[in-house]
Amino acid sequence: MAAGPFLLRCVRFAWEAAARPTSVGELAPVPVTLEAMELTDLPQMDPRVLKATSVKADPTAPATAEPQALKITAASSNPKMFTLPWEKPLATWPDELLANLPRGISRHVVRFVHVGDSVYAMKEITRNVAEREYELLRRLEKLELPTVEPIAVVTGRHTREGEPLEAILVTRHLKFSLPYRALFARNLRPDTAERLIDALAVLMVRLHLAGFYWGDVSLSNVLFLRDADAFSAFLVDAETGDLHVSLSEGQREYDIDLARTNIIGELMDLSSGALLPSEVDEVEVGNRLVERYHSLWSALTDVDSFSPDEMWKIEKRVNRLNELGFDVDELEMNTTPDGNRVLVRPRVVDAGYASRKLLRLTGLDVQENQAKRLLNDLDAYRASTWRQGEDLEIVATDWMREVFEPTVRMIPAEYRSQIEPAQFFHEVLTHRWFLAEQAGHDVPMVEAVESYIASVLPKYKLDASVMAAINADADSGVIDDERTFDTNTYGNGVFDADGRPAHLRADDDDDYNPDDDPDAAVWSH
Amino acid sequence: MAEVVFDHVTRIYPGNDKPSVDDLNLDIKDGEFLVLVGPSGCGKSTTLRMLAGLEEVNKGRILIGGKDVTTMQPKDRDIAMVFQNYALYPHMTVADNMGFALKIAGTPKDEIRKRVEKAAEILDLTEYLDRKPKALSGGQRQRVAMGRAIVREPKVFLMDEPLSNLDAKLRVQTRTQIAALQRQLGVTTLYVTHDQTEALTMGDRIAVIKLGILQQVGAPTELYDRPANVFVAGFIGSPSMNINTHPVINGQAKIGEDTIDLPREAVAKLTAEDNGQIIVGFRPEDADLAVADDPNAFSLKVVNVEDLGSDGYIYGNIITDGSAAEASTMMSDQNKLTTVRVNPRALPKIGDTVKIKIDPTKMHLFAPSTELRLN
To answer: End-to-end distance of chain B based on CA atoms, in angstroms?
Structure first.
């Protein structure tokens, strides 16, 4: 080993060198950051971020900057967008346009809308917030982070009478995804909360590595996709976020602390509604996030130190990261000045190790744990057909044709929008294992699929009353919809001598009757 | 006591030559509502985030209640960021929605109840403490969210453009409520906004910041009546101040064919760097129509008039002789038009040329070289 410090950067240790990184996290030691959304002229910023969108939110623009006529800035060229009733408040859009899907808690009116063959999520918010969030989501999308896909910002909305309406942010509904409340509405395993937390910790670490400060981490601001026995989390609400070149410890710690508080609050709420299994300790689950986050962050960013004859430890470190679902795209190795120690740390890591491998072999684009399960089944198929010597690519093609596709073709039509094929396949494999254990011998795949469809799959259906309850909950936090409060009782901001709003004397709402409430329009859908 | 002190605080982002916040010295007194205002990118949010512990401080110190918090983690600073889209929990009562964070922190039950009841009283939510959010109006829901921050009884409230995601109606109402609440609670507050109207209507004092440098700190009337420099003069007030550069001839400002008197002490402060020029500013309400032969007035060609019933406004171009030395440089943001508030019953017509006289006691004079106030 040469004396004195040296630095070696190894590009992509993992074997699938051709794959593109799915996320880039430069783990610079010095936090680099910038004022919100002022990203131009910053050479440190990823160029994909700088060119993400033409929308530039300007918080200082006066109200008069609102376009006089309807303006749609869209990332998708769906012509049906122009046929929607933009002149109506979102809460009054006709039922036939709406997709009845479970929604998360929001302070704003949110609806799922059929637009041609797609389902879009529409959120009614002020123009500046809509533009800012669209801009941020576009940038996160370019960094290939797990977020919902922004479709459009619609501004310049007016009623037929010419009254201005708030802007609408349009995102694509993430197929098969569910808000956490919908997951708890079903009879689920007691460890559901923990599995959601683990997914959220991975999401937070990935976003933080990319320089995204969230500012409002909570289960409500995330959508979950089933991912084999785990979940994958996707960011859905970026209203309070900021994209920086990298984050300070203070920013990360603030996000973690707020996440913990919000998660515990959300679980306490489920508990109040008797929706949480009684054995779940809310505070413990909240603490688990902090612990999971730190352990993952440390695995991805810590510097390892070992002697020059222990170089095999580098491989161990890389394998450990692969197990966690990350590739090491760039590794930095330094020696101490005396040459006795080697210091190693990953510089760039990418999530999606297994899913990229599966994508390359089969063209299937699935979640990370699903990919692991499918790759395992592919390995088993290869062994059971005595084809270890053959190219994996060729075996994979046969496995697709003979095993995967025939199985997922058996998903009954009514469930095709409820369960992802890869998840179905995974669950059938698990079910087959249980059947085999009970029977004491192997069970054919067809038999396993039939049994699974009959006995397990029905749990995927949300019944109508549960759906209605979830969406009523979702709307009961809306604060900024005209129909959520009566302006006559809300008053005009006049305060009495005590500094209290003069219109809000205690007796104002004494005879409150929810049935008469104009808000009812918001939560009856 | 929770006074906040920024002591020579500087923040330079790596890769940048210029500091985003440069040697900031600012005291927020105990219980004070201080509004930090400035245009986009001026460093106001960076300042708030440094106080919150979200941004590192490169130089200087930050003190809260006499304690140095410069390197402390956000959660240890006893601050509350207000209005970060608090969600309301549908199955929890209003009381639980407000107090659950205290429960997590291990605060005793009776203490939680006491604080929640106190906050509810201030927010006029006492009657609703046992209700669920569903049975509240939008405004009440909004106040429950405020209650969540209040019950923490932090040393400092931080608010970063808290009204930006509210629609126009709710914004005006909430603005008034926040200001009134803060006065009742007496919690030291740093409020960041780009909107000078918010600053003028809400703050005990306003700090104006531009390109990372603090321009002036003072009560709203102080900033309005005696702006320390051209930037503050143009930024504070709506409609904004008329600001133009004019040649100084024989101790008078030459405006087109006309001259107006200037106070001798102000003219005496001009230096060679000012190239014989002076910046004259006046607010639309501090000038009036004058008679045609008034020796201390200037001519304005009227291009637009507005009759608002209670007030009239005229917008016009100052008539110059076209020479380079007299080409006025407009420094405010009113499409280069000079604005004057007049009696709506005596509005001139578009196309008229009128004489305008500035109230000499309300004239704002600045040196072109330094842009600092002269009078």
So the answer is: 37
